[in-house]
Every structure is written in structure tokens, then in C-alpha cells.
Amino acid sequence: MDMSIEEFIGNEVKSNDVVLFMKGTPQFPQCGFSGQVVQILDHLGVGYKGLNVLESAELRNGIKTFSNWPTIPQLYVKGEFVGGCDIIREMFQAGELQQLFSEKGVAVNAAA
After folding, report:
1. CB atoms within 10 A of CB 55
2. How many CB atoms lie under 10 A from the CB of residue 41?
3. Distance in angstroms (rounded) separating the CA atoms of residues 87 and 25
4. Is 110 part of any domain?
5. Are 52 and 24 in contact (CB under 8 A)?
6. 85 labelled binding-site residue
7. Residue 112 falls within a domain, yes or no?
8. Are strands 80-83 and 18-22 parallel, antiparallel or unpaired?
């Protein structure tokens, strides 16, 4: 039996500590906003799974419904929706993103 898109997203979010729903891949972001979030995560040295919403219209639309958030990228940490590019950038600049990873027990390798 095939999983619904909601089940697929829920499963990805639950089974990976950090998930980024993005346009493109972590190696080749296909939009500036996805690229900025990738740069921040890479800078922090956080391990994450990138899911390319451009590969599937169902995923692209499903994640917006799942999170009730209209834009991509979307970052999830330990099953919790954190935000999109602007929120992630602001949290990073304020040191709040690093604090969130620390509180959630997600390893950060960079001395940021």
C-alpha cells in the first residue's frame, strides 16, 4: 500500500533529526532561499536530510499543507517545524538556531 504524501512527510520528519524541504538538493540548491538555508546548516556543520520538492508536485504541495506554511524551504528539527529562510536566517544571526539545535540534542560541528 502506498503512503499518502502526509504520511511520507510525517515519516521523514520523524525519522530524521533535521530535515530541509527545499528546491534542489543540498549540493545544488535551485533557489536562493534554499541555498541560504543550506549555507547556514553547512556553516553550523549540522547533519540534515534535504528533500527536493521540485521532483514532485505532490511533495511540493503536500509540505505546504503539512506545515500550514506557504513557502519553501522549510526546516524541521526533531519533528518540529522551525520555519523558512527568513526565520532561519534571523534565528541564526541571533544565535537562536544554534541554541535550538543544542536544546534538541542535535550535534553542531562548527564553532559558530
Report:
1. 12
2. 23
3. 20
4. no
5. yes
6. no
7. no
8. unpaired
Residues in contact with 23: Cβ distance below 8 Å, sequence separation at least 6, in sequence order? 29, 30, 31, 33, 34, 52, 53, 54, 72, 73
Number of domains in the chain: 1
In tens digits, the chain (112 residues) has pLDDT values of: 578 999 999 999 999 999 999 999 999 999 999 999 999 999 999 999 999 999 999 999 999 999 999 999 999 999 999 999 999 999 999 999 999 999 999 988 855 4
**Residue range of the domain that includes 30:** 5-104
Residues 6+ apart with CB under 8 A from 70: 64
State how far the Cα of 63 lies from the Cα of 41, in Å rounded to an integer: 20
The domain that holds 25 is classified in CATH as 3.40.30.10
* 12 in any annotated domain: yes
Instruction: Decide if 27 is inside a domain.
Output: yes
Amino acid at 71: T
- Residue 89: CB atoms within 10 A of its CB come to 17
